[in-house]
Write a structure and sequence with these properties.
four-stranded antiparallel sheet, six-stranded mixed sheet, 227 residues, 7 helices, 32% helix, alpha/beta
């Protein structure tokens, strides 16, 4: 379902010089699989995820997500690729002036859905993550765990084949982090592939799965029990 082949990712610093983040990246992810992506802050985890939703292009090599490939996908096709993906961020990125319901429904409106279908699918997603009773609450009225559940609901409301989670528990205390992790694992067991970037090794040990580490800009498979 996903393949990164001999790829590199870099960025330009303020002087215009190219700074290489990671190189010779190789990754395959099967439909319904769960994989952790670990490494310290700044190791390139977020950059690798950006390759998958084509927010950045590889310096060289190829990235393929379903039928979309980095060297052949046109810019106007990228929104269609992203409809196949759900993304959960560490800092929530909820619209502060809208309720949990409106934040989730916004993802449906953005992809052309209207009317009764929006209400049904939005409430189904909120129910799936356990906060349907908080549908009318705004982010400022919600706990950190509730806000992240709303983010997960927004990410899954379009029924993606892959969920990308970028440090989704980074701003949560351990008890709430475990609750969110159990929610993500439940979604994975229902058939949604999950690629989760994290530097929380406690979480990886507690809920083990295939684990890849970014080490000096390269991907290396590691035993989660060794962390």
């Amino acid at each position: 379902m996903i393949e990164i082949r001999n790829a590199a990712v870099s960025y330009r610093d303020p002087s215009g010089a190219r700074v290489e983040v990671a190189q010779d990246l190789n990754l395959t992810l099967a439909r319904g699989e769960m994989v952790y992506l670990i490494g310290p802050t700044g190791s390139g985890k977020s950059s690798l995820l950006k390759l998958l939703y084509m927010d950045v292009q590889p310096e060289y090599g190829v990235v393929r997500v379903g039928p979309y490939q980095s060297d052949t996908t046109k810019p106007h096709d990228v929104p269609f690729l992203r409809r196949m993906l759900g993304v959960v961020f560490q800092d929530f990125q909820l619209l502060p002036d809208r309720s949990a319901y409106d934040n989730v429904a916004f993802a449906l409106h953005a992809t052309g859905h209207r009317g009764a279908e929006v209400r049904q699918r939005t409430m189904d997603a909120l129910s799936q993550v356990g906060i349907s009773h908080r549908a009318q609450a705004k982010p400022s009225e919600m706990s950190g765990g509730e806000q992240q559940r709303a983010c997960v609901a927004r990410a899954i409301v379009n029924d993606p084949m892959l969920l990308l989670a970028d440090e989704p528990t980074g701003n949560l205390d351990p008890r709430v982090a475990d609750e969110i992790q159990k929610l993500l694992i439940k979604l994975n067991r229902q058939g949604m592939a999950l690629l989760m970037a994290t530097h929380d090794y406690r979480l990886v040990r507690s809920f083990p799965a295939r684990t890849l580490a970014l080490v000096k800009g390269r991907l290396v498979e590691v035993d989660p029990e060794s962390l």
